[in-house]
Amino acid sequence: MADIAAPADPPPEDEPQALRVAPGTPAGRLDKALAALLPGHSRSRLQGWIEAGHVLVNGRAATVRQPVGPGDELTVWPQPAPESLAFVAEPVDFEVVADSPDWIVVDKPAGLVTHPGAGNWRGTLLNGLLHRYPELAGVARAGIVHRLDKDTSGLLVVARNELAQTHLVRQLQARSMGREYLALAHGRLAAAGTCERPVGRDARVPVRMSADRPLAPKPAVTRYAPLRHGQAGGEPVTEVACRLETGRTHQIRVHLASLGHPLLGDALYGGRGLAGAGRQMLHARALHFEDPGGSGERAFESRPPADFRRTTEAISWNP
Q1: I need a labelling partner for 302 at 20 to 30 A (CA). Which of 25, 106, 243, 292 fits?
Q2: 104 Cβ partners below 8 Å, 6+ apart?
Q3: Is position 149 annotated as part of the catalytic site?
Q4: Catalytic residue among 31, 72, 107, 149
Q5: With contact defined as beta carbons under 8 Å apart, do 283 and 153 qualify?
Q6: pTM of the predicted model, to two decimals?
Q7: How far is the C-alpha of 256 from the C-alpha of 109, rounded, in Å?
Q8: Model confidence over 30-64: pLDDT tens digits?
Q9: How far apart are CA 266 and CA 76, in angstroms?
């Protein structure tokens, strides 16, 4: 095949793959033709390659919807899957509250994703941990034992070696690790209680979890207690302390919403931005665990961040 010009900035270490649309193939869109020729890659990934300039048609830059037919020559620079590049060290801003040879306690800021995943392959807490503690590359999930949602702030513990990770995970499973959250919720939550409604994926909205009609539900236990009541924008608001006994995705957000008290700012579960809340008003304020190194119980507390405090101060609390 004749030499073909490369994209403006192809990865120099990658060799292009030369393909030809076979005779008798019906004319159609480039992304569909490429998916038939490279069935090991999803069409959405191939579309990304095309849009980034990693695919040429007859030596020229291409578009996703460009028609191709029999005899057309395709040149492809295959790109690594995002997940294969996710576990890399990157400088990421977060506070380390304390550490030991066995663990690290992090105070995660709101807006920081804990672990790489779809749409967030880089710039996560995991990437930052690998940058500050290179030895975590040898520990599963870089030592992350439990997660916080992107827009939830506060404390989490990371294991620095496999033995410590096993020890801490067993504490989670035995419900002996203490995790307490501070939440600002809609409505007047009158009394303390326990929500034990199983949580699973929402059958109607894939990005949501549900306690009403969950898919593949798992047991979930949240203990909650109102701390004070107030008003914001003429509506009742409750400051709530929540203790997790299990750690399902979005657990506190789902449980409080199922009780009719969604978190301020949590649009996914029916919350609104009262008192200037720009995210779900949830902060992991206390954490305690048994030190895997044998020095007894370790306990930590975290003050809510500035945006949480501003919302709290904007609420008129009852005497």
Answers
A1: 292
A2: 96, 98, 129, 133, 143, 157, 158, 160
A3: yes
A4: 149
A5: yes
A6: 0.77
A7: 22
A8: 999 999 999 888 888 899 899 988 999 998 989 99
A9: 43
